[in-house]
Structures are given as structure tokens and as C-alpha cells.
């Protein structure tokens, strides 16, 4: 019970890094001696000290004989920073409780093994589900090479995204849009398509003053990070004049062929193999994984939403439903060409349902067959 209390605190600390650590995971650490928390820390940004180092610095001499609770196996490699398992050993910690192993092939059990070899009492698996939920993107990328993909959709009660005329702005509420800002801010990248860029000319940024107050209390304005904007643009239709090109942070254009125009320094084109004259989505996500993108937040139209689902690359669907009816002439949520039999209809399970302002947010997991 005590162990769970301290691990819950370590998880809470780890969450403070959820807007800033990418491509690194969120990790928290609590050091306890004689029932007293003597050190605490979390990983804030790649290149900065790991959670354990912050906690050990705070604990100082009190780390000797103490228990360290960490939400992820302490690292054993020299990355941007030296191995945490050595730091814990040098500080004289006598017990380490990890919520889960680090699937990073550079660590993968070696951190725990080396602590054990140093005579430290080591265990793992405490509150593992919570620890998994903390780092869906990092863990999926380390295990499979692919990023974690969330597809956002917004619709009326009858599943319409726009009137027949295409008029679509503000179907969902300001509260839903604030929620989207927070989820964008937690993602490594925001992905959209040239069709959306040409139709709406969006900026696809995180706007600090549009985040809700509780998020702002955990995420300082000076730490604001712009997720990479990724645009699927197989026909090279995006131009340097589109609004997102002028935004701070990076923009990556996924294209079949790279053009010779001059683009600002923060814009990169990358070439992706073709699939039926379009971008091959599986290859693209694999490339994004190689580029250390942990998680992708997709905001696009019905065509692309359908293509992602049919390619089987969606990990989670986030649907905001507004309590309005747009009628039968309105445009549908998802374009699924070739779907004729009910038996072939994509199916999902609800993992969360909650009200956001006047709207409802549904979180669903696809059932891939
Ligand atoms: C830990 N504690 O707080 C974090 C860990 O480049 P580096 O040195 O920052 O190493 C990054 C890797 O270290 C990352 O891929 C993951 O395996 C692990 N992250 N480990 O012991 C931490 N952030
Ligand atoms: Zn480390």
C-alpha cells in the first residue's frame, strides 16, 4: 500500500513532463527514507537530466539506504546523459521499485540487471498499467518502430461534419476546441493533408492562451513547444504562402517527389513511396517513427480519415459530438469506399466517454480483424 502511494506520486510527477519530453518518455522519481520523501523529480526535456538525477540531487546524502520509486526502468546507457542505474548505485540507494521495464533496446532490462548486480533490492511491475498509459507513443515506437496515431473527428449528433455547401466552422464548442489544443500540445506531431490546407488554410499550432487554466498551471508559457506539423501532400499542392508555413516550429511535407522551390529553414520535404498514386501511409508512419515521432495527432477530412482506418494505422479515435442535427444532406464523418456489407463495417470499442462543455467526447479503439 505504501509502495503504491509513492509510485502514484512518481506518476503524478512524470505527467508534468507530458508537454515537453518528446522524443523522450515521461518519467517520475520519488526517493523515500524512513517513510519520508527526501527527493523528487521528473524528466522535463530531452537533453536535460533524467528524473532520477533530479530526485537524487534533492535527496543528497539522504539517498543512502533509501528506496527509489521510478515510473520507468532506470537507464543503463550513455545517451544525451549518463546512466541512471550508476547514479542510483553511487548514491547508495538500497531498493529500487520500477513500474515497468524500458523497451528501448539500449536499456531493455539491463538497467534493472545492473542495479541487482550492485546488490540493490530491485522489483518492477507496480502500477504498470498507469505507467503504460503515460507513454503510449514512446512505448509503441520502441516496440514497433511506429508512432501512436490518434485520429480526431468532430461532428454533429447525426455524424455530419459540414453542411452540403461545405460550411463547417464551429460545429463543436469552444470547450471542445480547448480540449483539442491540450491534446495537440501533448503530441509529438500534428498531421493533416494538403486538401485541408487548401480548403481551410489552418495554422495547426498550439496557442498558449487557448489552453485551459488547469493545463496552463502545469505548463509554463516559456516551455511552449510546437508539435511538428506534418502535411501529406502527394501532388505538391502546398506552397510557401500557406499560413502554416509561416508558423514557429517545424513543418514537414510528406511528398512522393521533392520540389525545387525555396522553402524557409523550418520546412522540410521528405519523400515517401507511392501507393496507387498517393502517399503510402504505412511507409510514411514508419519513416516518422525513424524520425523519432512518438505520437501523431491527426486532424483532416473524411477522405483521409477513411484512408487511415482502411490502412489499419489508427490506434485511437477521438470524436467530439455536438448536440446539433445537420440533416441528411450534410457531409459524413468518414469516407469508406467499397464498404457494402455490414459485416465489413469497421468496429470500435469505447474506452472513454465524457462531456466537454456542451459536447461529448468519445474515445474509441479500433477492432482490427
Ligand atoms: C530514465 N529516466 O527520466 C528518462 C529515461 O538521450 P537520453 O540520455 O535522455 O536518454 C533517453 C533514453 O533514456 C530514452 O529513450 C529512454 O529509454 C530513457 N529515458 N530513462 O532512466 C528518465 N527520461
Ligand atoms: Zn536515465
Automatic annotation (TrEMBL):
Catalytic activity: 5-amino-6-(5-phospho-D-ribitylamino)uracil + NADP(+) = 5-amino-6-(5-phospho-D-ribosylamino)uracil + NADPH + H(+); 2,5-diamino-6-hydroxy-4-(5-phosphoribosylamino)-pyrimidine + H2O + H(+) = 5-amino-6-(5-phospho-D-ribosylamino)uracil + NH4(+)
Transmembrane segments: none
InterPro entries: APOBEC/CMP_deaminase_Zn-bd (IPR016192), CMP_dCMP_dom (IPR002125), Cytidine_deaminase-like (IPR016193), DHFR-like_dom_sf (IPR024072), Eubact_RibD (IPR004794), RibD_C (IPR011549), RibDG_C (IPR002734), Riboflavin_Biosynth_HTPR (IPR050765)
Keyword Nucleotidyltransferase tagged: no
Function: Converts 2,5-diamino-6-(ribosylamino)-4(3h)-pyrimidinone 5'-phosphate into 5-amino-6-(ribosylamino)-2,4(1h,3h)-pyrimidinedione 5'-phosphate.
NCBIfam families to which the protein is assigned, alphabetical: eubact_ribD, PRK10786.1, ribD_Cterm
Name this polypeptide is given: Riboflavin biosynthesis protein RibD
Organism: Pantoea coffeiphila
